[in-house]
Amino acid sequence: MGRLDGHLAVGDLVHLSLDTVRRAGLQRNHTGTHVLNYALRRVRTEADQKGSLVAPDRFRFDYSANVSWLCSKFLKIT
After folding, report:
1. Domain annotation covers residue 47
2. How many domains does the chain have?
3. Is residue 54 part of a domain?
4. Are 36 and 77 within 8 A, CB to CB?
5. Which range of residues forms the domain containing residue 58?
6. Is 13 left (phi over 0), alpha (psi -120 to 50) or beta?
7. Against a cut of 0.85, is the pTM above it?
8. Predicted confidence (pLDDT) at residue 68 exceeds the cutoff of 90
9. Which of 5, 26, 46, 64 is the most buried (most CB within 10 A)?
10. Alpha-helix residue ranges (DSSP H) falling in 1-78
11. Which residue stretches, if any, does this entry annotate as coiled coil (predicted)?
12. Is 37 part of any domain?
């Protein structure tokens, strides 16, 4: 996250700088949450995403499901 020193007004010019390595990691892991959600719902249709954390080097996927998981079903996703 950046920060602003001073004030902005309509018509002001601004300079944007991106950390492309960090951004690429965030993009990959954000996509990973969508892929995992899709795969999870194909195996367990009642599963529901409850949240996620997306960081440049990892992601966490929070979900709920009303049934016990069998190892074979879980391995289908991974």
Report:
1. yes
2. 1
3. yes
4. yes
5. 20-77
6. beta
7. no
8. no
9. 26
10. 20-43, 71-77
11. none
12. yes
